[in-house]
Amino acid sequence: MYSGAVAANAFFSLASDGKPDTIVILGPNHTGLGNPLSAMNKGAWRTPLGDVQIDGEVAESISKETGILDFDEVAHRHEHSIEVQLPFLQYLYGGNFRFVPICFLMQDLQSAQEIGRALAEVLANRNAVVIASSDFTHYESQTSVSRKDQAALKAVEALDEKKFYDIVESENVSACGYAPIAALMAYAKGLGATKANVLCHQTSGDITGDKTSVVGYAAVIVKKP
Predict the structure, then answer these.
(1) What is the C-alpha to C-alpha distance for residues 162 and 150, in angstroms, rounded to an integer?
(2) pLDDT, tens digit, for every residue of 42-60?
(3) Which CATH number do you get for residue 145?
(4) pLDDT digit string (tens) for 111-157?
(5) Euclidean distance between CA atoms 46 and 76, whole angstroms
(6) Is the CB of residue 112 less than 8 Å from the CB of residue 104?
(7) Residue 57, domain extent
(8) What's the distance, CA 63 to chain centroid?
(9) Which of 6, 95, 160, 165 could form a disulfide with 217 if both were Cys (CB 3.0 to 4.6 A apart)?
(10) What is the tally of structural domains in the chain?
């Protein structure tokens, strides 16, 4: 109820851009289970809208390209950050796409950039989309969350993952998936993108009316030039 309307802005934009064959979804690991950087290369994920098949070929190619990405179902078993994106995609495309989930327990900048580089290499000639799933600042006042999130989003707009990490650290931006965001930025730059566009930023306080302790959400798109 808090993030869905914000995320819908990005999916609305995606819907006007044709249907991808493969979608890579990057998300944080909230549970601490499994390997530090974990994908899956077989099976399917089930939502109330049906099953979505894993793209094993693409997953294997990404893992081979990086050398740091493992296949580990355990890391995904109780993690929500990736699965919450699937109903949006199923609403747009039905079951007519495959996806690769990549879960980040290890969120250092170097690993994020390496995953982004590998994605650019593997997906360059494919009909593919990459999605990064993350909340932004957690459980601060509306004023504080807005200030911190806007600073971080300026770095995202510039596709500057180093500056993004600096702001996350210096401003204590408690975004749960900062590495997935950075990996997406590195991927986009690898395909020639130079900027991102923020479509929407809101907080949970905009829904509840209580702005004393809120969580921030943003929808951002990056398009190849």
Answers:
(1) 16
(2) 999 999 999 999 999 999 9
(3) 3.40.830.10
(4) 999 999 999 999 999 999 999 999 999 999 999 999 999 999 999 99
(5) 13
(6) yes
(7) 4-221
(8) 18
(9) 6
(10) 1
